[in-house]
Amino acid sequence: MSKIDDMLAKILVDPLTREPLITVQSKDQIISEIKNQSGQSYPIINGVIDFENDTNYADNFGDQWSRFPKLQLDSFNGTKISEKRFFGALKLEPDELKGKLVLDVGCGTGRFAEIALKAGAYVVGLDYSSAAYVASKNLEKYSNFRAIRGDIYKLPFEEKSFDIVYCLGVLQHTPNVEQAFKSLPLVVKKSGYLVVDYYWKRLISVLGWKYPIRLITSHLKESTVLKILSLIHPFVYPISRLVIRTPVIGKALSRLLPVVNYCRDYPELGDELLREWSFLDTYDNWAPKYDQPQTVNTVKKWALDVSLKQVSCEHVGHLVVRGFVE
After folding, report:
1. Are 229 and 186 in the same domain?
2. Are 201 and 295 in contact (CB under 8 A)?
3. What is the pLDDT of residue 91?
4. What pLDDT was estimated at residue 273?
């Protein structure tokens, strides 16, 4: 059994009954399933412990990450975009992650888990969608990683299990953002570190095309949204590239067009990857069932509600909140 699996064996619980879980190994010493004391079993498929095998509100994320499985991995695109966002949010040095047991909530394809793993952390990546399988495949070379498909509202871990828990780019897409956030401190060790981020609710966030379009697209099937975007994006994106180059006001003007454009933010990606990232994040804006930005005062209040200490809040791409658990 790998060290990460040995760690998990001590902290995994049934997400519904809270009973301890035991691992079942095959003849070749590979864990094939886990069971609770009542005999209820959960499969381990392609390296993923799967507690959720049904459709849910996060299906669009499973769909988009299966279509763009590596795009946001620094190891694939040759940049440090994810690394900069990760360490900018956590405000940690790589050495501070080494040897720590870390939970990546909403891990997606593993873009941030990859950074933590390279720093020497033992990482559990949890995602509610089938993206957990994408992360497992992307990070299969790391023996200190295990992917879990599970629900943020029913985390399958004992309380006070992880040294560090982070949740980046996720909470605004949950049905109840406050409840989702308040589930996280429970699994952080005493004096452990919690970092989350949110879309920032401010005037500039609600201006532009995104929320008017979502009045329609958030109620459509993911496949329908994808078809619509596949028709629109090839025509609008080139226009957006021209608009965004307008001196002084180009970036502001581009917000009025119904596609995301990172030409001025990440020029190091190159034309083809910029186009793909634009398509991916436009779909990410249109398709989620929930998109709920939050104010600074609200997220600070939630942090105080759960008695986080040394709370800090700042805008680092997203609205980031950090603190230590008592």
Report:
1. no
2. yes
3. 97
4. 97
Residue 26 pLDDT: 56
What is the model's pLDDT at position 326? Answer: 87
What tokens appear for 110 in the block?
Answer: 């593993």
Q: In 3D, which of 140, 150, 78, 95 has the Cα closest to residue 113? A: 140
Task: Give the pLDDT score at 65.
Answer: 75
Task: Report which of 155, 153, 313, 290 is spatially closest to residue 217, judged by C-alpha positions.
Answer: 290
Say whether both 253 and 308 belong to one domain: no
User: Which parts of the chain have pLDDT scores under 50?
Assistant: none
Whether residues 93 and 183 share a domain: the answer is yes
What count of Cα atoms within 13 Å lies in the side-chain half-sphere of residue 326?
7
Residues 102 and 55 in one domain: yes
Is the same domain home to 31 and 174?
yes
Residues 179 and 226 in one domain: no
Map residue 248 onto helix, strand or coil: coil
Q: Please report the pLDDT score of residue 209 as a whole number.
A: 87
What is the model's pLDDT at position 25? 63
State the residue range of the domain holding 222.
Answer: 204-286
**Is there a single domain that holds both residue 18 and residue 167?**
yes
Domain count, the chain: 2
Ramachandran region of residue 32, left (φ > 0), alpha (ψ -120 to 50) or beta?
alpha
| Residue 193: Cβ-neighbour burial (10 angstroms; 0-12, 13-18, 19+) | buried
